[in-house]
């Protein structure tokens, strides 16, 4: 799979990533520029550029990404304390890679604006 986004290349194992979860539909790996003590990106293996490109037929896939997020929250031990899951859309929404992905963020007390309280927590 040449071309495509950096995420397509990670899926194809053309470039390395610190993968923490993989199944037939999705892949999760640690963000190389973490914004919290735990910052994992959860991506579908199917290329969908933005939230605007999600179709009705993608409903189960998108739900699956959230199931993976909850599973990882349990695995890392922060499900009870809480975490944030974010999906950005387009440039003004903060999207920098045009392959939809969830940001799973934890290990810090999150307020609004994001990370205003910024009290690091111990995570597993």
From TrEMBL:
InterPro entries: Histidine_triad_CS (IPR019808), Histidine_triad_HIT (IPR001310), HIT-like (IPR011146), HIT-like_sf (IPR036265). A motif (Histidine triad motif) lies at residues 99-103. The active site is at residue 101. One of its GO terms (molecular function) is catalytic activity. Gene3D superfamilies: HIT-like. Residues 6-115 form the HIT domain. This is Histidine triad nucleotide-binding protein.
């Amino acid at each position: 799979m040449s071309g495509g986004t950096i995420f397509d290349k990670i899926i194809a194992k053309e470039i390395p990533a610190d993968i923490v979860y993989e199944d037939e539909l999705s892949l999760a790996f640690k963000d190389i520029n973490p914004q919290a003590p735990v910052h994992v990106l959860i991506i579908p293996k199917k290329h969908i550029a933005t939230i605007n490109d999600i179709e009705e037929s993608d409903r189960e896939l998108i739900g699956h990404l959230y199931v993976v997020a909850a599973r990882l929250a349990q695995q890392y031990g922060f499900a009870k304390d809480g975490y944030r899951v974010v999906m950005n859309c387009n440039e003004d929404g903060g999207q920098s890679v045009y392959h939809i992905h969830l940001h799973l963020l934890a290990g810090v007390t999150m307020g609004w604006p994001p990370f205003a309280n910024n009290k690091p927590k111990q995570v597993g």
